[in-house]
Amino acid sequence: MVDAMGITGYEGTFRKTCEITLRLLRENDDVLMSVLEPLMHDPLVEWTKHRQRSNSPSGSVSDTARPTTQAKMILDIIRKKLQGKHVGERQLSVEEQVDELIREATDPGRLFQMYIGWAAYL
User: CB of 19 within 8 A of CB of 98?
Assistant: First the structure.
């Protein structure tokens, strides 16, 4: 994929585009979070794989089985990443956060976990 980005790889247009996009996401984080927060209460969104059924004859999912604490935790993680707290509690600048994300995306240790047929030794 890096070769497909041209002669500069991910250091050229891709990096600049990522920085601009992240800066826009940070400036409009309240709008993005207002779109995501209703999903916390959406009955069609499953936050866990196993949901308990109520004892009602219909077998419907009870309101008490709704894992809103897990949904809040996931939304907090998204909010922290938008603020630049991607790693640890120190707030990263836009450039630092893009550096960190690119470093993680190009880490061979992560790449081989992603695709079983990936062979770095070739």
Answer: yes
Domain extent for 40: 3-44+65-114
Contacts of 14 (CB under 8 A, 6+ apart): 5, 8
Q: Is 78 inside a domain boundary? A: yes
Query: What is the SS3 assignment for 61?
Result: strand
Is residue 51 in some structural domain?
A: no
Among the listed residues 26, 16, 5, 9, the one whose alpha carbon sits nearest the alpha carbon of residue 91: 26
Residue written as token pair 């990522």: 18
Indicate whether this model's pTM tops 0.70: no
Q: Is the pLDDT of residue 63 over 90?
A: no
Per-residue model confidence as pLDDT tens digits over 64-117: 444 577 888 888 888 888 888 866 678 888 999 899 888 888 887 777 776 666
* Beta-bridge partners for 61: 53
Burial 40-69 (b: 16+ CB within 10 A, else e): beeeeeebeeeeeeeeeeeeeeeeeebeee
Q: CA of 63: how far to CAs of 13, 43, 89, in Å?
A: 48, 9, 34
